[in-house]
Specification:
The chain is an alpha+beta fold. About 25% of the residues lie in helices and about 40% in strands. The chain is built from 3 helices and 9 strands. It has helices spanning about 1-30, 40, 70-75; strands at about 50-55, 60-70, 85-90, 100-105, 110, 125, 130-135, 145-150, 155-160. The strands form 3 sheets. Strands 4-3-8-9 form a 4-stranded antiparallel beta sheet, with no helix packed on it. The chain has a 3-stranded antiparallel beta sheet with strand order 2-1-7, with no helix packed on it. The chain has a two-stranded antiparallel ribbon with strand order 5-6. The longest helix is centred in the first third of the chain and has 28 residues, at about 1-30. It is globular. The termini are far apart.
Length: about 160
Amino acid sequence: MGDKLGKMVNKLYSIPIILFTLTLGAEENAPLKQFDRLDQKVSIYKDAKIFSITGSVNNISLSGVKVAKPDAHSLKQYGLISRKDKYAIKVLNEKGNQIMFVGLGDPFTVHIDHIGHENETVFQADIPQNFDIAMPVTSNAAYFVLLSQDEFGFKEIKKIKVK
């Protein structure tokens, strides 16, 4: 009887410890705010600030800013962060507060298959990529930060100031 009671008490103590551990793990990921998809913030029917960005595996540059109606493809292309996104862009205001955080996937790596060499090692190359990020006209974007994601989280690659 005492052995059963001891096992029951151990189980009862285990439940709060497990719940605490799960809560702690959830709070570690909390500081990274995610926003609704861009197409819910910006419409193809209204003017938006469109930031033209050139990026690569270790660099980001702003090639232009215009006010125009965004196309549907650019709005649906980038969305919420997922574990599959190797790269992301964080947009900050002048105070350094995050105003947008979008996943890019892995746009800078191209995989090359060579017919007749299927048994060879995988061929791939890093390429620069141009893309547009549309934001509401009233947005106060001051910085763009290119991030890479691995199993340990996000790492800043480069931060640029919007002129």
